[in-house]
Amino acid sequence: MKPEPWEKALKTDVPYASRRAEAAARSVMQHIKAGSRSHPAPSRWYAAAAALGAAIWAGSYADWTSAGKLFGILQPQPAAESVDMNVTLKLSIGDERLYRDMFGDQLKKRFPSLKIEFSDISTYEKGNYSFDAFEQMTEEQKPDLIISSSAIQYRLLAEHGKLLPLDGLEQPDKIAAVVNALRMPDGKSYGIATEFDGRAIFYNKKLFDQYKVPYPTDRMTWKQVMELAKRFPAEGNPGKKIFGFHEMYIPMFPASYLVGMIAHTHGLSYVDDSRKKAAMDSTAWNEALHLALDAYREGRVHPAKSYTIQNNRIEQADQQAMDLFAQGRAAMALDTIGAISRLKGSGIDYGIVTAPVDPSNPDINTQLIPGSILSVNPNSPNLRQAMEVLRYISQDDTDPRAYQNGVTSNMLPIPVHESTLLTIYGDRLKPFYAQQEPDWRRTVYSYDPTMDIQISKSISSIVDEETDAAAAGKQSVEEAQRSMQTRIQAVLDAPQ
I want to staple 470 with a disulfide (CB 3.0 to 4.6 A). Which of 109, 260, 278, 480 is the partner? Predict the structure, then answer.
Protein backbone atom coordinates (compact mmCIF):
# COMPACT_ATOMS: atom_id res chain seq x y z
CA MET A 1 0.00 0.00 0.00
CA LYS A 2 1.41 3.40 -0.97
CA PRO A 3 1.79 5.65 2.10
CA GLU A 4 -0.19 8.88 2.28
CA PRO A 5 1.88 12.09 2.26
CA TRP A 6 0.64 12.94 5.75
CA GLU A 7 1.84 9.51 6.87
CA LYS A 8 5.25 10.18 5.36
CA ALA A 9 5.38 13.48 7.22
CA LEU A 10 5.00 11.57 10.47
CA LYS A 11 8.13 9.56 9.70
CA THR A 12 10.59 12.01 11.15
CA ASP A 13 12.71 9.23 12.63
CA VAL A 14 14.26 7.36 9.72
CA PRO A 15 16.38 4.56 11.17
CA TYR A 16 19.64 5.29 9.35
CA ALA A 17 21.35 8.65 9.03
CA SER A 18 21.51 8.81 5.24
CA ARG A 19 17.88 7.80 4.84
CA ARG A 20 16.83 10.19 7.59
CA ALA A 21 18.60 13.07 5.86
CA GLU A 22 17.11 12.16 2.50
CA ALA A 23 13.57 11.84 3.84
CA ALA A 24 13.74 15.07 5.82
CA ALA A 25 15.26 17.04 2.98
CA ARG A 26 12.70 15.71 0.54
CA SER A 27 9.98 16.76 2.97
CA VAL A 28 11.32 20.32 3.00
CA MET A 29 11.12 20.60 -0.76
CA GLN A 30 7.74 18.91 -1.07
CA HIS A 31 6.11 21.19 1.48
CA ILE A 32 7.58 24.34 0.00
CA LYS A 33 6.70 23.45 -3.58
CA ALA A 34 3.25 22.11 -2.78
CA GLY A 35 1.93 25.17 -0.95
CA SER A 36 -0.71 22.86 0.48
CA ARG A 37 -3.61 23.74 2.76
CA SER A 38 -1.79 22.39 5.74
CA HIS A 39 1.16 24.74 5.25
CA PRO A 40 0.26 27.62 2.92
CA ALA A 41 3.18 29.15 1.09
CA PRO A 42 3.51 32.25 3.32
CA SER A 43 3.68 29.85 6.24
CA ARG A 44 6.15 27.53 4.64
CA TRP A 45 8.91 27.89 7.22
CA TYR A 46 6.86 26.05 9.84
CA ALA A 47 6.64 23.09 7.51
CA ALA A 48 10.31 23.39 6.73
CA ALA A 49 11.19 23.76 10.41
CA ALA A 50 9.96 20.31 11.37
CA ALA A 51 11.73 18.75 8.41
CA LEU A 52 14.72 20.99 9.03
CA GLY A 53 15.02 19.69 12.55
CA ALA A 54 14.97 16.16 11.20
CA ALA A 55 17.50 16.98 8.49
CA ILE A 56 19.86 18.62 10.94
CA TRP A 57 19.53 15.65 13.23
CA ALA A 58 20.36 13.35 10.34
CA GLY A 59 23.74 12.30 11.65
CA SER A 60 22.57 12.19 15.25
CA TYR A 61 20.90 8.80 15.09
CA ALA A 62 23.47 6.76 13.24
CA ASP A 63 23.96 4.42 16.20
CA TRP A 64 20.25 3.82 16.60
CA THR A 65 18.29 1.20 14.77
CA SER A 66 15.00 3.11 15.17
CA ALA A 67 13.30 5.99 16.90
CA GLY A 68 11.75 3.37 19.13
CA LYS A 69 14.98 3.38 21.09
CA LEU A 70 13.55 6.36 22.92
CA PHE A 71 10.89 4.10 24.29
CA GLY A 72 13.45 1.35 24.66
CA ILE A 73 14.87 3.26 27.61
CA LEU A 74 11.55 3.18 29.40
CA GLN A 75 11.84 0.42 31.96
CA PRO A 76 9.09 -2.22 31.65
CA GLN A 77 6.46 -1.89 34.37
CA PRO A 78 4.08 -4.46 35.86
CA ALA A 79 0.92 -4.87 33.83
CA ALA A 80 -1.97 -2.63 34.86
CA GLU A 81 -4.39 -4.58 37.01
CA SER A 82 -7.21 -2.04 37.12
CA VAL A 83 -7.74 -1.82 33.36
CA ASP A 84 -8.48 -4.77 31.11
CA MET A 85 -6.08 -4.29 28.22
CA ASN A 86 -7.34 -7.29 26.28
CA VAL A 87 -8.79 -5.02 23.58
CA THR A 88 -7.90 -3.79 20.10
CA LEU A 89 -6.87 -0.15 19.72
CA LYS A 90 -6.78 1.56 16.35
CA LEU A 91 -4.08 4.15 15.57
CA SER A 92 -4.33 7.03 13.11
CA ILE A 93 -1.37 5.79 11.13
CA GLY A 94 -1.26 3.26 8.35
CA ASP A 95 2.21 1.90 8.83
CA GLU A 96 2.95 -0.94 11.23
CA ARG A 97 6.66 -0.28 10.97
CA LEU A 98 6.19 3.33 12.05
CA TYR A 99 4.15 2.20 15.04
CA ARG A 100 6.77 -0.34 15.98
CA ASP A 101 9.54 2.22 15.67
CA MET A 102 7.70 4.76 17.78
CA PHE A 103 6.57 2.66 20.73
CA GLY A 104 5.22 -0.67 19.60
CA ASP A 105 7.82 -2.93 21.18
CA GLN A 106 7.55 -1.28 24.56
CA LEU A 107 3.75 -1.31 24.57
CA LYS A 108 3.83 -5.01 23.75
CA LYS A 109 6.01 -5.62 26.81
CA ARG A 110 3.86 -3.43 29.00
CA PHE A 111 0.50 -4.66 27.74
CA PRO A 112 0.98 -8.16 26.27
CA SER A 113 -2.74 -8.68 25.70
CA LEU A 114 -3.20 -5.38 23.82
CA LYS A 115 -3.80 -5.64 20.08
CA ILE A 116 -3.18 -2.81 17.61
CA GLU A 117 -4.70 -2.13 14.22
CA PHE A 118 -4.11 0.77 11.87
CA SER A 119 -6.34 3.21 10.04
CA ASP A 120 -7.07 2.44 6.41
CA ILE A 121 -5.64 5.53 4.77
CA SER A 122 -5.65 4.36 1.16
CA THR A 123 -9.01 6.00 0.38
CA TYR A 124 -7.74 9.41 1.57
CA GLU A 125 -4.92 9.67 -0.93
CA LYS A 126 -5.18 13.16 -2.35
CA GLY A 127 -1.69 13.98 -3.53
CA ASN A 128 -0.44 16.80 -1.33
CA TYR A 129 -0.80 16.65 2.43
CA SER A 130 -4.21 17.92 3.54
CA PHE A 131 -5.32 18.63 7.08
CA ASP A 132 -8.94 18.26 5.98
CA ALA A 133 -8.22 14.78 4.65
CA PHE A 134 -6.54 13.79 7.90
CA GLU A 135 -9.48 15.09 9.94
CA GLN A 136 -11.90 13.27 7.66
CA MET A 137 -9.94 10.10 8.20
CA THR A 138 -10.19 10.45 12.00
CA GLU A 139 -13.95 10.94 11.72
CA GLU A 140 -14.60 8.00 9.41
CA GLN A 141 -11.98 5.52 10.57
CA LYS A 142 -12.48 6.42 14.27
CA PRO A 143 -8.97 5.62 15.55
CA ASP A 144 -8.70 5.33 19.33
CA LEU A 145 -5.31 7.02 19.40
CA ILE A 146 -4.50 10.00 17.17
CA ILE A 147 -0.93 11.00 16.40
CA SER A 148 -0.43 14.62 15.30
CA SER A 149 2.73 15.29 13.32
CA SER A 150 2.86 18.97 14.27
CA ALA A 151 1.55 21.45 16.83
CA ILE A 152 -0.50 23.05 14.05
CA GLN A 153 -2.31 19.81 13.30
CA TYR A 154 -2.77 19.10 17.01
CA ARG A 155 -4.25 22.52 17.74
CA LEU A 156 -6.70 22.37 14.86
CA LEU A 157 -7.91 18.91 15.87
CA ALA A 158 -8.35 20.10 19.46
CA GLU A 159 -10.23 23.22 18.32
CA HIS A 160 -12.55 21.02 16.25
CA GLY A 161 -13.35 18.80 19.23
CA LYS A 162 -11.54 15.75 17.87
CA LEU A 163 -9.30 15.18 20.91
CA LEU A 164 -10.07 14.22 24.50
CA PRO A 165 -8.92 16.55 27.34
CA LEU A 166 -6.19 14.86 29.36
CA ASP A 167 -6.82 16.04 32.90
CA GLY A 168 -4.12 15.19 35.42
CA LEU A 169 -1.89 13.33 32.99
CA GLU A 170 0.94 15.86 32.77
CA GLN A 171 3.63 15.62 35.44
CA PRO A 172 5.21 18.61 37.24
CA ASP A 173 8.70 17.58 36.18
CA LYS A 174 7.94 18.03 32.48
CA ILE A 175 9.47 21.03 30.78
CA ALA A 176 6.97 23.84 31.17
CA ALA A 177 7.58 25.19 27.67
CA VAL A 178 6.54 21.86 26.12
CA VAL A 179 3.54 21.38 28.39
CA ASN A 180 2.37 24.95 27.76
CA ALA A 181 2.77 24.52 24.01
CA LEU A 182 0.15 21.76 24.17
CA ARG A 183 -2.20 23.59 26.51
CA MET A 184 -5.08 25.13 24.61
CA PRO A 185 -6.62 28.54 25.44
CA ASP A 186 -9.25 26.76 27.57
CA GLY A 187 -6.42 25.71 29.90
CA LYS A 188 -6.66 22.03 28.98
CA SER A 189 -4.14 19.70 27.34
CA TYR A 190 -5.32 17.31 24.66
CA GLY A 191 -2.11 15.44 23.92
CA ILE A 192 1.34 14.52 25.13
CA ALA A 193 4.74 14.83 23.50
CA THR A 194 7.61 12.73 24.82
CA GLU A 195 10.35 14.71 23.06
CA PHE A 196 10.92 18.14 21.59
CA ASP A 197 13.24 20.24 19.48
CA GLY A 198 13.87 23.95 19.33
CA ARG A 199 16.27 26.55 18.04
CA ALA A 200 18.77 28.80 19.79
CA ILE A 201 21.74 31.00 18.95
CA PHE A 202 25.09 29.22 18.80
CA TYR A 203 28.16 31.49 18.87
CA ASN A 204 31.80 30.85 18.07
CA LYS A 205 33.84 32.06 21.06
CA LYS A 206 37.12 32.14 19.12
CA LEU A 207 35.71 34.50 16.49
CA PHE A 208 34.15 36.75 19.11
CA ASP A 209 37.45 36.89 20.99
CA GLN A 210 39.44 37.46 17.79
CA TYR A 211 37.36 40.48 16.77
CA LYS A 212 36.91 41.70 20.37
CA VAL A 213 33.12 41.46 20.22
CA PRO A 214 31.16 40.79 23.45
CA TYR A 215 29.47 37.39 23.59
CA PRO A 216 25.74 37.16 22.87
CA THR A 217 23.37 36.93 25.83
CA ASP A 218 19.99 35.34 26.47
CA ARG A 219 16.85 37.11 25.30
CA MET A 220 18.47 39.35 22.73
CA THR A 221 16.26 40.91 20.08
CA TRP A 222 16.93 40.50 16.38
CA LYS A 223 18.15 44.09 16.35
CA GLN A 224 20.78 43.23 18.98
CA VAL A 225 21.78 40.06 17.12
CA MET A 226 22.26 41.96 13.86
CA GLU A 227 24.19 44.72 15.65
CA LEU A 228 26.63 42.07 16.87
CA ALA A 229 26.81 40.60 13.36
CA LYS A 230 27.87 44.02 12.02
CA ARG A 231 31.00 43.92 14.14
CA PHE A 232 32.51 41.17 12.02
CA PRO A 233 34.21 41.98 8.68
CA ALA A 234 31.80 41.94 5.76
CA GLU A 235 34.43 41.88 3.02
CA GLY A 236 35.81 38.90 1.20
CA ASN A 237 34.83 36.13 -1.18
CA PRO A 238 31.45 34.61 -0.15
CA GLY A 239 33.06 31.20 -0.49
CA LYS A 240 35.65 31.94 2.18
CA LYS A 241 34.55 34.90 4.30
CA ILE A 242 33.23 34.95 7.84
CA PHE A 243 29.53 35.82 8.24
CA GLY A 244 28.27 37.55 11.36
CA PHE A 245 25.00 35.57 11.35
CA HIS A 246 23.95 32.35 9.67
CA GLU A 247 21.16 29.83 9.45
CA MET A 248 21.90 26.66 7.55
CA TYR A 249 19.27 27.02 4.84
CA ILE A 250 19.67 30.74 4.12
CA PRO A 251 21.82 30.06 1.01
CA MET A 252 19.09 27.91 -0.53
CA PHE A 253 16.05 30.15 -0.09
CA PRO A 254 14.90 33.61 -1.26
CA ALA A 255 15.50 36.64 0.95
CA SER A 256 11.96 36.21 2.27
CA TYR A 257 13.31 33.28 4.33
CA LEU A 258 15.22 35.50 6.76
CA VAL A 259 12.49 38.14 6.55
CA GLY A 260 10.01 35.50 7.66
CA MET A 261 12.14 34.42 10.62
CA ILE A 262 12.31 37.95 11.96
CA ALA A 263 8.68 38.77 11.17
CA HIS A 264 7.53 35.63 12.97
CA THR A 265 9.52 36.49 16.09
CA HIS A 266 7.98 39.97 16.05
CA GLY A 267 4.46 38.56 15.70
CA LEU A 268 3.86 40.02 12.24
CA SER A 269 1.50 38.80 9.56
CA TYR A 270 1.05 39.72 5.91
CA VAL A 271 -2.66 40.44 6.37
CA ASP A 272 -4.76 41.71 9.28
CA ASP A 273 -7.19 39.70 11.37
CA SER A 274 -10.02 40.33 8.91
CA ARG A 275 -7.97 38.65 6.14
CA LYS A 276 -9.21 41.50 3.90
CA LYS A 277 -6.50 44.10 4.45
CA ALA A 278 -2.78 43.92 3.77
CA ALA A 279 -0.82 44.60 6.97
CA MET A 280 2.68 45.39 5.73
CA ASP A 281 2.62 49.18 6.00
CA SER A 282 3.49 49.31 9.70
CA THR A 283 6.60 50.61 11.44
CA ALA A 284 7.13 47.13 12.88
CA TRP A 285 7.24 45.64 9.38
CA ASN A 286 9.66 48.33 8.26
CA GLU A 287 12.03 47.44 11.09
CA ALA A 288 11.79 43.70 10.37
CA LEU A 289 12.43 44.25 6.67
CA HIS A 290 15.43 46.45 7.36
CA LEU A 291 16.92 43.98 9.82
CA ALA A 292 16.81 41.17 7.27
CA LEU A 293 17.37 42.97 3.98
CA ASP A 294 20.12 45.25 5.27
CA ALA A 295 21.95 42.14 6.47
CA TYR A 296 21.86 40.78 2.92
CA ARG A 297 22.81 44.10 1.36
CA GLU A 298 25.74 44.61 3.74
CA GLY A 299 27.05 41.05 3.40
CA ARG A 300 26.38 40.14 7.04
CA VAL A 301 24.58 36.95 6.01
CA HIS A 302 25.16 34.53 3.16
CA PRO A 303 23.61 35.63 -0.16
CA ALA A 304 20.11 34.30 -0.75
CA LYS A 305 19.45 31.67 -3.41
CA SER A 306 23.18 31.13 -3.88
CA TYR A 307 23.24 27.39 -3.28
CA THR A 308 21.49 25.03 -5.69
CA ILE A 309 20.54 21.46 -4.86
CA GLN A 310 20.03 18.72 -7.40
CA ASN A 311 16.73 16.92 -8.10
CA ASN A 312 14.96 18.71 -5.26
CA ARG A 313 16.86 16.60 -2.75
CA ILE A 314 19.12 17.90 0.00
CA GLU A 315 21.86 15.36 0.45
CA GLN A 316 24.15 15.24 3.48
CA ALA A 317 26.87 16.84 1.37
CA ASP A 318 24.52 19.78 0.78
CA GLN A 319 23.85 20.14 4.48
CA GLN A 320 27.55 20.07 5.25
CA ALA A 321 28.28 22.66 2.58
CA MET A 322 25.64 25.03 3.94
CA ASP A 323 26.58 24.48 7.59
CA LEU A 324 28.97 27.43 7.81
CA PHE A 325 29.00 27.50 11.60
CA ALA A 326 30.43 23.97 11.76
CA GLN A 327 33.06 25.12 9.26
CA GLY A 328 34.10 27.99 11.54
CA ARG A 329 32.82 30.53 9.00
CA ALA A 330 29.93 32.02 10.99
CA ALA A 331 30.12 33.95 14.24
CA MET A 332 26.52 33.14 15.18
CA ALA A 333 23.98 30.64 13.91
CA LEU A 334 20.34 29.97 14.66
CA ASP A 335 20.20 26.19 14.91
CA THR A 336 18.45 23.22 16.47
CA ILE A 337 19.54 20.99 19.34
CA GLY A 338 20.99 18.63 16.76
CA ALA A 339 23.79 21.12 16.10
CA ILE A 340 25.40 19.94 19.35
CA SER A 341 25.93 16.54 17.73
CA ARG A 342 27.18 18.00 14.45
CA LEU A 343 29.71 20.17 16.25
CA LYS A 344 31.34 17.25 18.07
CA GLY A 345 34.83 16.83 16.70
CA SER A 346 34.76 20.20 14.94
CA GLY A 347 37.13 21.79 17.44
CA ILE A 348 34.85 24.83 17.70
CA ASP A 349 34.52 26.32 21.19
CA TYR A 350 30.95 27.55 21.24
CA GLY A 351 28.28 28.84 23.56
CA ILE A 352 24.48 28.78 23.33
CA VAL A 353 21.95 31.48 24.21
CA THR A 354 18.23 31.75 23.59
CA ALA A 355 16.85 32.48 20.14
CA PRO A 356 15.98 36.13 19.44
CA VAL A 357 12.87 37.27 21.30
CA ASP A 358 9.94 39.48 20.50
CA PRO A 359 10.81 42.68 22.42
CA SER A 360 7.15 43.15 23.34
CA ASN A 361 6.70 39.49 24.38
CA PRO A 362 10.12 38.27 25.58
CA ASP A 363 8.69 35.27 27.48
CA ILE A 364 7.18 33.66 24.38
CA ASN A 365 9.16 30.73 23.02
CA THR A 366 8.86 31.30 19.29
CA GLN A 367 11.12 28.37 18.29
CA LEU A 368 9.93 25.36 20.30
CA ILE A 369 8.84 22.33 18.25
CA PRO A 370 7.11 19.49 20.16
CA GLY A 371 7.68 16.00 18.81
CA SER A 372 4.84 13.81 17.54
CA ILE A 373 1.82 14.37 19.78
CA LEU A 374 -0.27 11.44 20.98
CA SER A 375 -3.95 12.05 21.80
CA VAL A 376 -7.13 10.12 22.52
CA ASN A 377 -10.23 10.20 20.31
CA PRO A 378 -13.14 11.32 22.58
CA ASN A 379 -15.43 8.94 20.68
CA SER A 380 -13.24 5.91 21.30
CA PRO A 381 -15.10 2.91 22.75
CA ASN A 382 -11.88 2.07 24.60
CA LEU A 383 -11.22 5.30 26.46
CA ARG A 384 -9.77 3.69 29.58
CA GLN A 385 -7.37 1.54 27.61
CA ALA A 386 -6.31 4.44 25.38
CA MET A 387 -5.71 6.61 28.44
CA GLU A 388 -3.67 3.84 30.03
CA VAL A 389 -1.39 3.82 26.98
CA LEU A 390 -0.88 7.58 27.25
CA ARG A 391 -0.27 7.35 30.97
CA TYR A 392 2.46 4.80 30.42
CA ILE A 393 4.12 6.78 27.65
CA SER A 394 3.93 9.98 29.69
CA GLN A 395 5.82 8.65 32.71
CA ASP A 396 9.49 9.35 33.34
CA ASP A 397 11.34 6.08 33.71
CA THR A 398 14.27 7.20 31.61
CA ASP A 399 17.54 5.49 32.35
CA PRO A 400 20.30 8.13 31.93
CA ARG A 401 22.77 5.33 31.22
CA ALA A 402 21.05 4.84 27.88
CA TYR A 403 22.18 8.35 26.97
CA GLN A 404 25.85 7.81 27.70
CA ASN A 405 26.76 7.59 24.02
CA GLY A 406 24.43 10.45 23.24
CA VAL A 407 26.45 12.79 25.42
CA THR A 408 29.75 11.89 23.81
CA SER A 409 28.87 11.06 20.23
CA ASN A 410 25.26 11.29 19.01
CA MET A 411 22.31 13.28 20.32
CA LEU A 412 19.27 11.17 21.10
CA PRO A 413 15.64 12.33 21.03
CA ILE A 414 15.37 14.99 23.71
CA PRO A 415 13.02 13.90 26.53
CA VAL A 416 10.60 16.39 28.06
CA HIS A 417 11.42 15.75 31.73
CA GLU A 418 13.70 18.51 33.00
CA SER A 419 15.36 16.49 35.75
CA THR A 420 16.34 13.90 33.16
CA LEU A 421 17.75 16.56 30.86
CA LEU A 422 19.76 18.13 33.67
CA THR A 423 21.12 14.73 34.69
CA ILE A 424 22.17 13.86 31.16
CA TYR A 425 23.17 17.17 29.62
CA GLY A 426 23.57 19.60 32.51
CA ASP A 427 22.08 23.01 31.82
CA ARG A 428 23.39 23.47 28.27
CA LEU A 429 19.98 22.78 26.74
CA LYS A 430 18.19 25.38 28.86
CA PRO A 431 18.33 28.08 26.16
CA PHE A 432 16.02 25.90 24.07
CA TYR A 433 13.25 25.87 26.67
CA ALA A 434 13.98 28.77 29.03
CA GLN A 435 11.06 30.81 27.70
CA GLN A 436 7.95 29.08 28.92
CA GLU A 437 5.07 30.92 27.26
CA PRO A 438 3.48 29.23 24.22
CA ASP A 439 3.28 31.03 20.91
CA TRP A 440 -0.39 31.52 20.07
CA ARG A 441 0.12 34.60 17.90
CA ARG A 442 -1.02 34.70 14.29
CA THR A 443 2.15 35.35 12.30
CA VAL A 444 3.62 34.77 8.85
CA TYR A 445 4.16 31.14 9.90
CA SER A 446 0.62 30.46 11.03
CA TYR A 447 -1.66 28.04 9.26
CA ASP A 448 -4.84 29.90 8.31
CA PRO A 449 -7.62 27.55 7.18
CA THR A 450 -9.78 30.54 6.20
CA MET A 451 -7.28 31.77 3.61
CA ASP A 452 -7.67 30.51 0.05
CA ILE A 453 -4.60 28.53 -0.99
CA GLN A 454 -4.20 30.44 -4.25
CA ILE A 455 -4.23 33.74 -2.36
CA SER A 456 -1.59 32.36 -0.02
CA LYS A 457 0.57 31.33 -2.96
CA SER A 458 0.19 34.72 -4.60
CA ILE A 459 1.20 36.52 -1.41
CA SER A 460 4.22 34.27 -1.08
CA SER A 461 5.34 35.00 -4.64
CA ILE A 462 4.96 38.73 -4.12
CA VAL A 463 7.03 38.69 -0.94
CA ASP A 464 9.71 36.56 -2.63
CA GLU A 465 9.98 38.89 -5.61
CA GLU A 466 10.06 42.15 -3.69
CA THR A 467 12.43 41.05 -0.93
CA ASP A 468 14.83 39.49 -3.44
CA ALA A 469 14.92 42.75 -5.39
CA ALA A 470 15.60 44.77 -2.24
CA ALA A 471 18.26 42.33 -0.99
CA ALA A 472 20.02 42.67 -4.36
CA GLY A 473 19.95 46.49 -4.12
CA LYS A 474 17.54 46.89 -7.04
CA GLN A 475 15.12 48.88 -4.88
CA SER A 476 15.04 50.35 -1.41
CA VAL A 477 13.50 48.59 1.56
CA GLU A 478 10.78 51.24 1.64
CA GLU A 479 10.00 50.71 -2.04
CA ALA A 480 9.75 46.98 -1.47
CA GLN A 481 7.48 47.51 1.53
CA ARG A 482 5.13 49.86 -0.37
CA SER A 483 5.01 47.50 -3.34
CA MET A 484 4.21 44.48 -1.16
CA GLN A 485 1.44 46.38 0.60
CA THR A 486 -0.11 47.48 -2.70
CA ARG A 487 0.25 44.18 -4.50
CA ILE A 488 -1.02 42.05 -1.59
CA GLN A 489 -4.04 44.34 -1.21
CA ALA A 490 -4.78 43.93 -4.92
CA VAL A 491 -4.75 40.14 -4.49
CA LEU A 492 -7.13 40.37 -1.54
CA ASP A 493 -9.47 42.70 -3.45
CA ALA A 494 -9.58 40.57 -6.60
CA PRO A 495 -12.87 38.70 -7.26
CA GLN A 496 -12.70 35.09 -6.11
Answer: 480
